[in-house]
Amino acid sequence: MTELSPPPSPPLRILLVDDDPFMLSMLADMLEDLGQLNVRSESDARQALLALPQFRPDLLICDLSMPELDGIEFLQKAADRHFAGAVVLLSGMDASVRQAADTLARAHGLSLLGTLAKPATPAALRQLLGKIRGQV
């Protein structure tokens, strides 16, 4: 009699939101190198909000500084839509700004994994993926 191995877990769904196409491409490439992931990129925060219910990401990586709808407003709207996945804030701004955004995101009930300074590194992304894989 052979032992059945558990079915493989589905790839993590990750939604990247950043108005900079180069940053989106770089992040997507780094994530693809880290394993079986389903990565979707949105350069418009309004489009990303529309994508949330259909794509249902396990992880949302969001830039704080975007035109029209900045990262904080985006996260407030995601929380209003009962987004239940994990969140990583991404910003080239000062660490104190990232910390304030972290506090606000938690106050809105979001599950914040952490904040990353731009440009993110593969090692930092790998560490965050390790955290989320422990939760999913």
TrEMBL record:
Response regulatory domain ranges (all copies): 13-133
Native organism taxonomy: Bacteria, Pseudomonadati, Pseudomonadota, Betaproteobacteria, Burkholderiales
A single GO BP: phosphorelay signal transduction system
Keywords carried by this UniProt record: Phosphoprotein
SUPFAM superfamilies membership: CheY-like (SSF52172)
InterPro entries, sorted: Bact_response_regulator, CheY-like_superfamily, Sig_transdc_resp-reg_receiver
Transmembrane helix is among the record's keywords: no
The species this protein was found in: Pseudoduganella guangdongensis
Protein name as it appears in the record: Response regulator
Pfam family, one: Response_reg
Modification sites for 4-aspartylphosphate: D63
